[in-house]
Amino acid sequence: MGNEHLEHLSREQLMDLVNVYSKNWLALDGLWFQSVEREQGMDAAMRHDVDVWKVYTAIEARRLKQFLGLSEHPGLEGLTRAMDLRFNAHHNRHEFAWEGENAVVFRTVYCRVQDTRARKGMPLHPCEQVGEVEFGEFARAIDDRIRCERVSCYPHITDDSCNCAWRFTLEE
Residue 124: inside a domain, yes or no? Predict the structure, then answer.
């Protein structure tokens, strides 16, 4: 299954296409959200956003887990490998800070969504609730022993050096 046109593209063209696909994915995500936000308000948009991310995140994690050939319990190393390949990782910038062997903090140091909303004069996206679902469900789909907790995320910013930060802990 595939697109035979892709076979004729160079590595550079394929990388550029990943960038196009990533931006298209983000545009679709933002457009449906803003449509609901305009018509029904932020609370309704957030309810739908949580519902969508709960399902989408698990699908994305399972597909990346299979693509990477990760074991059933790949631990935090498997999680960080998968998070590096998430679609939104392509247009955001992130880093990991290890806290021993059983915990790692994921920090988004540039968030295209928040940057775009700020540039357009829109209020920041109150992403904490969605982030709890998105990152928590993604981690559990990679390894059901991993737990996620917010360190810093709008509207509860505790770290001004990043857009958001999430701690993942491996519970054995």
Answer: yes
